[in-house]
Each structure stands twice: as C-alpha cells, then as structure tokens.
Amino acid sequence: MKYHILTLFPEMIEQGLHTSILGRAINNGYISLETTNIRDFSANKFNRVDDYPYGGGAGMVMEAEPVFRAYQSVAEKIGKKPRTVYLTPQGKVLNQTMVEELALEDDLVLLCGHYEGIDDRVLQEVVTDYISIGDYVLTGGELGAMVLVDAVSRFVPGVLSNEESSQFESLQDNLLEYPHYTRPETWHEKKVPEVLLSGDHKKIEAWRHEASLVRTAERRPDLLENAFQISCACNEKEE
Ligand code: ADE
C-alpha cells in the first residue's frame, strides 16, 4: 500500500507515522508514505495558498490551483486516476467496513485541508471519497489522515505479526472485545476472573463471549442494535 498525502504540514504526518508498528511496516516495505507539500505548488511569490472567500465571511479558503497541481504530481506517478480521500467533518464517518475496503487499494491519495476548507471546484474534480473521523471539527485534515493510515495499514498483509493481529480486535462481529488480564492474579484487591485460571478452553471461550456481549451492551448498545437490525433484514430476505 502506498499512501500519498497532500498537506501543508508534512512534518506532522512524518513525525507521527514513522514510529512503532507503522514505522516498522515502512522500514520493511509493506507500506510507503509519501508526503507532498501543497505549498510547493503555489504560483504566488510569497508561497501563499489561501485567499478570501467569495461572498465574504470569516476565514480563508485554500485555492484550487496549488491543490490541483500537487494532486497531478502524485496522480502522474501513480499512472491512473487514484482513489482520493478528502478528510473533512462533512464526510462519511469512518468505520471498520470502510477501512477494510480501502485496504484493498494499491495507492491512496489523502488530501488534508486547512482554514475554512478547499475551493470546492478542485474537490469536485479529484475527490472520490469524503471521509470524517468523527462528528467533531479538527483544525485540519492531518490527524484524520493519520488515523486512516493507521487503521487501514492493519489490514495490509505483513504489517501486523500474527500475535499483533489477534490483539486489539475490539470490533469483531460488531461486538467489543472481552476484558484482558495479565499478572499479578490480584491487583488492588481485584482478582482475575477464576475461569481464566481454569485452563478449560471451552469455558474460557464461553465466558469471553458473554463478557463481550455485556461490555457491548454497557458501552456501545448502538452496535447491538445495528447487529440486530442487520440480522432482522437478513431473516426478512430469507422468508
Ligand atoms: N478535518 C477537520 N475535522 C475533521 C474530521 N472530524 N474528520 C476528518 N477530517 C477533519
């Protein structure tokens, strides 16, 4: 997977993503990260890339042309019209299904906006997906791009070791994962659930499944409702 990130702040992306599991995946060649500074494509002698909004109002708008040129420089290298994600609070909220689908691409262009946003005309020409990382407003798209790179990379073959890929499976089958414990057996007078010390794998599996259901009901009841609706829709189809 090759990520091509169009941004005004490449150092933010590079510092954030060249560590830990993703740093290792970059060094081992499973993913690559190329940042393009949109400012390098400014036609303005002061390297300005933003201007006042037509119609008035607060804030500045990123101009279409530097964004387009930055995009073209990347698209030319890829050799075809690439899947291009614009990170914006106006996008579809990212979820695990979208993450897994994006991981099937060979190249992903991620466009990060700033100020009040980007001139809509260039977005209409280049963007294939509008994606938000949650219903709140960030100062720019970079953190969104980093979240997306992290989540998608987990599904790129080779990025996670076997052990790592069985970790953090917090959203399997629309259920949150069961709680985890390690030594010591008692900590702050709290004991590890007895069944986990029993060595009885069937019982442990049953306990974990139930703990998953309870945790999901307590913390994310919306996931259970979704699962229930999907299962009802399937049953209706079968009838
Ligand atoms: N840029 C600003 N806010 C954002 C959000 N919530 N998700 C993605 N990109 C953004």
TrEMBL record:
<dbReference type="GO" id="GO:0002939">
    <property type="term" value="P:tRNA N1-guanine methylation"/>
</dbReference>
<comment type="function">
    <text>Specifically methylates guanosine-37 in various tRNAs.</text>
</comment>
<dbReference type="GO" id="GO:0005829">
    <property type="term" value="C:cytosol"/>
</dbReference>
<keyword id="KW-0489">Methyltransferase</keyword>
<keyword id="KW-0949">S-adenosyl-L-methionine</keyword>
<feature type="binding site">
    <location>
        <begin position="133"/>
        <end position="138"/>
    </location>
    <ligand>
        <name>S-adenosyl-L-methionine</name>
    </ligand>
</feature>
<feature type="domain" description="tRNA methyltransferase TRMD/TRM10-type">
    <location>
        <begin position="1"/>
        <end position="225"/>
    </location>
</feature>
<comment type="similarity">
    <text>Belongs to the RNA methyltransferase TrmD family.</text>
</comment>
<comment type="subunit">
    <text>Homodimer.</text>
</comment>
<keyword id="KW-0808">Transferase</keyword>
<dbReference type="GO" id="GO:0052906">
    <property type="term" value="F:tRNA (guanine(37)-N1)-methyltransferase activity"/>
</dbReference>
<feature type="binding site">
    <location>
        <position position="113"/>
    </location>
    <ligand>
        <name>S-adenosyl-L-methionine</name>
    </ligand>
</feature>
<protein>
    <recommendedName>
        <fullName>tRNA (guanine-N(1)-)-methyltransferase</fullName>
        <ecNumber>2.1.1.228</ecNumber>
    </recommendedName>
</protein>
<keyword id="KW-0963">Cytoplasm</keyword>
<keyword id="KW-0819">tRNA processing</keyword>
